[in-house]
Task: inverse folding
């Protein structure tokens, strides 16, 4: 026969389970009640002329630095080739000096490469100088939209490899662009113009240059391009 003490223990255990279940259920329903949105930061940034201009300037710096390294590498190759050619004719003291010069050039190139493209180097500094101000404006605007619309999370479609589908009505990219003062779809329109210009450049001006069987209406099809950062 069950005594009162056992009944009391059973009732307390049942009450505990009920409280835990209610707590977890409330968390579950609360999670589903939260609002979510997505944004395509690539699309937003490409629609901002300041960002495109800054990216071109950064690309120019990168091209100049790569040429600088390429020229240094060519000098090193020439030094090595000359040494290999003169190796058997050189006395030991000159041979050692030439080897030291080659080693110094190798170290110079390694140091220059680290200076230009290493962590915290010139590329990182220029990227922070040219691109980060525009990126900060975009992310601050995303945060503003999220706070005004009470979104719990904002996912970046351009960066998230796990975002397999996003309903257009939850995409706030155009809203972010409008708050920044830019016209939505400007990047898409510019991309279409660039594609048409590229196709026109590829099209032979002389009909005799066309390959037999080439479809006049054929066009090259380009693949489509590509959590909120605080």
Result:
């Amino acid at each position: 026969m069950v005594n009162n003490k056992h009944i009391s223990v059973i009732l307390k255990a049942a009450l505990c389970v009920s409280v835990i279940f209610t707590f977890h259920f409330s968390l579950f329903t609360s999670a589903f009640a939260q609002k979510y949105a997505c944004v395509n930061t690539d699309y937003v940034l490409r629609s901002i002329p300041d960002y495109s201009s800054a990216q071109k300037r950064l690309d120019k710096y990168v091209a100049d630095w790569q040429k600088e390294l390429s020229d240094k590498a060519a000098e090193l190759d020439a030094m090595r080739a000359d040494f290999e050619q003169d190796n058997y004719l050189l006395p030991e003291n000159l041979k050692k000096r030439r080897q030291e010069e080659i080693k110094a050039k190798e170290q110079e190139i390694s140091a220059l490469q680290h200076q230009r493209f290493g962590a915290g180097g010139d590329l990182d500094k220029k990227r922070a100088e040219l691109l980060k101000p525009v990126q900060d404006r975009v992310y601050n605007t995303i945060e503003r939209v999220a706070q005004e619309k009470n979104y719990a999370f904002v996912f970046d479609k351009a960066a998230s490899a796990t975002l397999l589908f996003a309903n257009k009505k939850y995409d706030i990219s155009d809203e972010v662009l409008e708050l920044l003062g830019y016209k939505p779809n400007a990047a898409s329109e510019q991309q279409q113009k660039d594609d048409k210009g590229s196709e026109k450049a590829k099209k032979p001006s002389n009909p005799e240059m066309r390959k037999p069987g080439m479809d006049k209406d054929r066009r090259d099809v380009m693949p489509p391009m590509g959590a909120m950062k605080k």
